[in-house]
Amino acid sequence: MSVRTRFAPSPTGVLHLGSLRTALYNWLYARRHGGEFLLRIEDTDRQRSLPEHIRALVEALQRFGLDPDEEPLLQSSRVERHREVAHQLLESGSAYHCYCTPDELAAMREEQRARGEVPRYDGRWRDNTGPPPAGVKPVIRFRRPDSEEVVVKDWLHGDVRYLNSQLDDLVLLRADGSPTYHLSCVVDDEDMGVRQVIRGDDHLNNTPRQLQLIQALGWTPPEYCHLPLLLAPDGKKLSKRDEATDALHYLRAGYLPDAVLNYLARLGWSHGDQEVFTIKELISCFGREGLGASASRLDPDKLNWINQQHMKTAPVDVLCEGLEAQLEKIGLNPADGPPLEKVAEAWRERAETLAGVAEAARWAFSHEIELDEKAARKVLRPVVREPLAAVCAALAGLAEWTAADIHACIAETAESLGIGFGKLGQPLRVAVTGGGVSPPIDTTLYLAGRARTLERLDVALGYIDARIAAAGSAAQG
Ligand code: GLU
């Protein structure tokens, strides 16, 4: 079977994480088999499908690189075609006019409930041959077939059987002429040439109805795959209000798009015990075989770990782009500091997220630093005053501010004072960054820049002087 998949979201303003996974699986499946991935925006609910919601959705997919192979199709532009098919079904006898008013339908349901039955349309207008009642606009209903059952063949669930008697005659066209979801979905999938429908489990019970429609129209059904839900880390249903369900939240929080996709791919699919995949690898490995039928829980620790693995190998410009946004987010000016690629290179092996890099590199972009009191007490002691002053003078005289020159300068100063390199490293680090953890000291000073380094060493010397003075007056007193 040829491969043409689609993602068919209803635009509500945010791209849900579960929807992103659905889009990803469709995209991967199409890429893997050299087929096409299509995007259909199901915007028939005009009140919720605002133009800005549609734009946000298309942009969110773009940010994750899940580009469709054809122009996105707006379902609202196809209403005429949906009506045409409804009338075709009417003519062939597979549909009929129903003149029930909303009040009548409500009463019907009430009676059924009172009898302990499941409420459903009772088919009272199915075989009407009389004249239509005056003044009532009819709906068009599908005449469900009389065969006993309908079988959905699903990649994950196998053959799922539904008794026809459990399904009622669904509305295809409402009284105002607007098509319903089932009709639009089936007609659009057919006209778009969709051959694989990969969507959420919540649609499984829609599929027998859609299959019946497809059969009545004489079309060939696509293959189906209904994906299990994504659950919150505690196993509960994901709340729409939780920001962790918004796919873009992860980019805002400093995760790399490819890492998020890798993480999502693995929530519901596996390939041996491999955890880390490039997008290329996902394309070459992704297939039905690895899909799992049970719901998966989000696992923030795993996302952090996968992101960390991707940080190590991501192209530096991807890191820089994300880092720029993260620095701005914490109120720092990315242009007022070292080149971003140097920052990215210095932390890519150690940070979990780009937000973590921005936070760790704060001292390289801020004008002031806060000395960590504990580290300063421990490291900026009177004994290091002289070596620190000496290295400060030597650094001030460096012709070029490169990590290699800084390294040589510290080594020479240490040697001339007869102390080890390490004795200077930690006081320099605490003086320049405010704390005891940073990249290698030559890189650290390079990143801080000469002006910031010398300024901060001055402050540190002042701090030591104050300690010396305090110790002196304590001794005198
Ligand atoms: N528009 C539906 C949704 O967002 C998807 C319909 C489908 O995939 O068939 O849930």
Describe the structure.
- The structure is a single chain.
- With 477 residues, this protein is mainly alpha-helical.
- Helices cover 48% and strands 10% of the residues.
- It has helices spanning 17-32, 51-63, 79-92, 102-114, 181-192, 207-217, 247-252, 257-266, 279-285, 300-313, 316-329, 340-347, 354-360, 362-365, 373-379, 385-396, 403-417, 421-433, 441-448, 450-476, and strands at residues 4-7, 36-41, 73-74, 95-98, 139-142, 149-154, 158-163, 171-173, 196-200, 223-227, 230-231, 296-297.
- A 3-stranded parallel β-sheet has the order 1-2-3. A 3-stranded antiparallel β-sheet has the order 4-5-8. It has a two-stranded antiparallel ribbon with strand order 6-7.
- Helix 3 crosses helix 5 (181-192) and helix 17 crosses helix 18.
- It is elongated, with a radius of gyration of 33 Å.
- The model has no long low-confidence stretch (mean pLDDT 95).
- Bound molecules: glutamic acid.
- Glutamic acid binds next to loops.
Number of strands: 12
Percentage of residues in helical conformation? 40-55%
Hetero ligands: glutamic acid
Q: Please state the structural category.
A: mainly alpha
Question: How do the strands line up in the largest sheet?
Answer: 1-2-3
> Taking all residues together, what is the mean pLDDT?
95
Distance between the first and last residues' Cα: 93 Å
Number of helices: 20
- Tell me, what's the shape? elongated
Strand content: 5-15%
Largest sheet, in brief, is: 3 strands, parallel
Query: Which value, in Å, is the CA radius of gyration?
Result: 33 Å
User: Low-confidence segments, ≥5 residues, pLDDT <50?
Assistant: none
